[in-house]
Amino acid sequence: MRRVIQRLHLIVASIAGVFLVVLGITGAIMAFEPELDHLLHWRLWHVTPAGLPLSLAQLGATAARAVPGAHISGYILSSSPDLSWQVLLGGRVAYINQYTGDVLGVVPNGPDFLSRVHQLHLRLLWQSPSDAGKTVMSWSGLALVGLVISGFYLWWPQKRVRVRRGGSGARAWLDVHHATGALSLAFLLLLAVTGVCIGFDRQLVPLAYQLTGTAPQLVYGQTPPRRSTPTGDPTITPDDALAAARAALPGAAPISINVPGPTGVYSISARYPEDRTPGGRSRIVIDPDTGRVLAAEGSRTAPLGTRLVTLNRAIHTGDVFGLASKTVMSLASLAVVGQAVSGLIIWWARRRPVAFTRPRGERTQPLR
């Protein structure tokens, strides 16, 4: 049985190894995606708080002057007072100091380095109707689950957690492989299982609601309710819609709002102070003609199924406990890379029909 599991461990690692390295490197970066974005674009993001923010109408007018003729499609409100707000218009993003109205910069609303890293992690930058790239990465995550479990089985008899002195380079790499896997086992398994749940969300999210006997009020990524009688431009302004959203979910700070088209509605994302995910997990839908709340789902009162889905994502990204858990998950992602590299070196060494020297006092035998 041990030989069979060892062979399966090698075969799965050989097939999925490249994809696991991609997952590990990109995952380590994504754990600090917001922080890196704020650092790389410091001039666009950072402002000095000074009183109350200006209204969206004022900020929108300022942005419209910076990009003449562009249609405003939405606003992004930062969750921190020292970070700027953004106005989305005409395929561009205007970063604005919400306290002074100064335009800090206008950039294309397209993929940048971090968004490409994100898409590489999710789907190998492979956009297709079948989302084949996501399928490949999801199965790679499932392969990681199998490798962690089988690796634990193979490690258990010797329980080696240190790199011994005096051994050959290949023997040292074997010790590194064992020690890294043992020390990061729990976090690797957590990272892999939560990643699989995200990768196969189309199948597993409905299952979460079914098992908990709950149903989502609003499903992320799906079209929200529409206006029953389209009347053209909204009667209710974005500022009015924000006020209605705050009243619908007291204590939740709005972080984004769209500007609806002829048949659309205001869709507002919000975030409670205790929410760990940067994007928040609360959502309010407002009728643009009457200001009536068409739907609202807050993270505090969300169905159990929704809470489980949200918790799974927060654990995977490391947001669940803030900077500490982000660091742990980033290191766990790097451990995936370390395991793949050390495993490759061990495999290459085993292909050579030679014996490897063990530390003094131990019997010389082939590398296992």
Characterization of this structure:
It is a single chain. It contains twelve helices and eight strands. Helix 8 (185-199) crosses helix 9 (201-212) and helix 8 (185-199) packs across helix 11. It has a domain at 233-302: Nuclear Transport Factor 2, Chain: A (Roll), CATH 3.10.450. With 368 residues, the chain is α+β, with helices and mostly antiparallel strands. The chain starts with a helix and ends in an 18-residue tail after the last helix. The relative contact order is 0.13. Strands 4-3-2-1-5-6-7-8 form an eight-stranded antiparallel beta sheet. It is elongated and about 75 Å long.
Q: What order do the strands of the largest sheet run in, or round the barrel if closed?
A: 4-3-2-1-5-6-7-8
- Helicity, as a percent range: 40-55%
Largest beta-sheet characterization? 8 strands, antiparallel
By DSSP, the count of extended strands is 8
**What's the N-to-C terminus distance?**
16 Å
Average pLDDT number: 89
Anisotropy-based shape: elongated
Number of helices: 12
What structural category characterises the helix and strand content? alpha+beta
Order of helices and strands: HHHHEEEEHHHHHHEEEEHH
- Identify low-pLDDT runs: 354-358, 362-368
Radius of gyration of CA atoms, rounded to a whole number:
25 Å
Task: Look up the CATH topology of the domain at 233-302.
Answer: Nuclear Transport Factor 2, Chain: A
> How much of the residues is beta strand, in percent?
5-15%
The appropriate CATH architecture of the domain at 233-302 is Roll
